[in-house]
Amino acid sequence: MPPAAAEPLTPERILETTEEVLRRFGPTKATVVDVARALGVSHGSVYRHFPSKAALREAVTDRWLAKSVVMLEEIASAPAEPAPSKLESWLEALFEAKRHKAGDDPELFATYIVLLGESSGVVEHHITELIEQLSRIIGEGVAAGSLTAPDVAAAARAVFDATGRFHDPQYAADWLEPTITAEFEAVTALVIRGLRA
Q1: Nearest to 77 by CA among 59, 90, 67, 63
Q2: pLDDT tens-place string over residues 42-66
Q3: Can you give the pLDDT at residue 161?
Q4: 142 CB-near residues (< 8 Å, 6+ apart)
Q5: Phi and psi dihedrals of 114, rounded to 5?
Q6: Alpha carbon distance 94, 123 (integer Å)
Q7: Angle (deg, nearest 10), helices 83-104 and 106-118
Q8: Which parts of the chain sit beneath pLDDT 50?
Q9: According to the model, what pLDDT value does residue 76 have?
Q10: Are 91 and 106 in contact, with CB atoms under 8 Å apart?
């Protein structure tokens, strides 16, 4: 067992350690006791920050998904880029982020697929945030006259759904196909062409 924690036990530290434990043991075998042991604290100390194993797993899932939202927000908030280019950049960044998560750490990605199935509220919130970003981009384009959409929110949802093969984890195996980049570019071009004013 590691020595007692020299640094304060914070929710962020617990989440980082939980991610390591999930990577090591997988979602079915990892326990709060494993997390506490890795931190060098009692499992009661972990429960003071997260009241249940489910709450801890949900927080880890939320943290993992939030990384994409923050990165995509930078694109959505970029002031100078025209909306069609911004939309293309945003879709490309979402695809690349998901593809890298699947390819760079396949064990952890597989673990998160299991956790996503358990955390429907977290997933719905994540999807809502992404669609709101798309709505802002499309809304900017409509205001500037470079895009057209009678219902911006519906258009944003349609774009998200139409590009699902390139960001929905259920399609992760497809992301390894040699033709996937060309397929992504074709779908993205078609979507943006359909929105142009």
Answers
A1: 90
A2: 999 999 999 998 889 888 888 888 8
A3: 97
A4: 83, 148, 149, 152, 197
A5: -65, -45
A6: 15
A7: 110
A8: 1-5
A9: 96
A10: no
Can you give the chain as a three-state secondary structure string?
CCCCCCCCCCHHHHHHHHHHHHHHHCCCCCCHHHHHHHHCCCHHHHHHHCCCHHHHHHHHHHHHHHHHHHHHHHHHCCCCCCHHHHHHHHHHHHHHHHHHHHHHCHHHHHHHHHHHHHCHHHHHHHHHHHHHHHHHHHHHHHHHCCECCCCHHHHHHHHHHHCHHHCCHHHHHHHHCCCHHHHHHHHHHHHHHHHEC
Q: Which two tokens stand for residue 55?
A: 């709450």
pTM, two decimals, is 0.83
> Interhelix angle for 11-25 vs 106-118, to 10°?
110
